[in-house]
Amino acid sequence: MLRFKIAALLGALMMLATSGLVSAQVAYGTPFATSITYQNVGSGQANVQFQFYNEKQAVPVTVNRQIAAGAGSSLFVGGLSGNESLPAAFKGSAVMSADQPVVATLVQIAQPSTSPVKNRPLSNGFSSASSTVLLATVLKNQFNTTSVFSVQNAETNSAIDITISLFNADDPSASPITLTENNIPIGAAKYYDMGTLSQVAAASFNGSATISAVRTGTSTPANIVASAMELGTSGAKTLNAKAKIFMATALCDAFGDQQRTAYAVQNNGSAAANVTVTYSDGTDASASINPGAKKSFVACDDGAPAGFSGAATIEAPGGNIVVIGKAFSNLGTPGFETAFLGEQGGNPKLAMPYVRWTSQANFDAGTRQRTFLAIQNVGTSAAANVAVKYLDKNGTVVGTHTIATIAAGAKANSNPTLAAADPNNPPLTLLEFGTPDGNPGGGFGGAVIIEATGGQLIAIARVASKTGATQVAEDYNGIPVQ
User: Domains plus CATH for the chain?
Assistant: First the structure.
């Protein structure tokens, strides 16, 4: 059985921190319920098992499902019933196992459905873990935002003890704030809300975090994964820091809502790192970052021209860095705030488990979503015949967008309207891709597989919604398929 971990702020009904999405509407404290969207990237039907662990609890609730090869489906944690039901106000983690390769993206949905908070924070599950995790941004009452993060025990036979160091980006000379937690059971997680941590005494905090783990009562390193949510987004990563990081999206006042990107770069080395961000139009910017500290790079501030939509590469020769990217609107109104992860390398095949597309009328009404894909070739040679395959909930390819070539370092965009419909399926399957109207027998479920000849690909899915006249969005990274 293949196993991977879901530490990403999982709840049937839980209180999390996100940013305000409409004027005077602050969502810190909004209840969220989780939907796990997952995709079978194997060759046969998959038998999938979910084990749900309440915070620091050792005994899980087990749920079993089946999914066809290639298909994308979802499990709404807030809708489980009977022997599968979770406790009221459940806040925890999960371990997902299958007899075929599977990938998963978590979707946080504000409760109740009439909530004015329309952002749906996204994060991916993990197929691997490490003894050290880096969170490039943690905030308390900064930029109208407070972070919540969780740390999950990814060991298979031991409880763990963790140590967290919080570094102050506004005062790099300050000693890090240290937090500890002991005896976290196998599969379970511990949550931290920056707004309520007594150790963070200041009214506001802008920084980063390093998390390490050992097996309980020993000095033996232990495996963990972690996730953080802020700005209405979720970013999750188990990281081995590298000297070179790729960012699939770089923006400066692009598109109608004047989208911009900012990169939070954290130095995980033992000495100061000289960091350079190079945008795909040749613009660059540099800074020195102390150990454990972070520095933000904003494309527009770094000299990228208005209207720029490209990609970026971030390098720290001889150093080790991790990066989280954020996209936001420059129009001065809240709503469009997303986060995505810097990638350490690419893959010729990627999976995107959560993809939706709907008519303009449904999108404007705020009842359904649209997904936009940004695909970057981070290899040294061109990627040819890039096939973006759109699959319904049964794993049937209903349309393919073929990109002839993506040059080394360049990026391309995709969405279902660019896909040529399969002649065996009606056009509606692309107009309403991933929705009940576009799936056989109804029900939500749409996924994408991206494949190329040559090149190394990374991708970001931006899932957009409307609330009134405002567009809100969330990002998640494409998942490599071996």
Answer: 2-236 (2.60.290.11), 244-341 (2.60.290), 349-480 (no CATH)
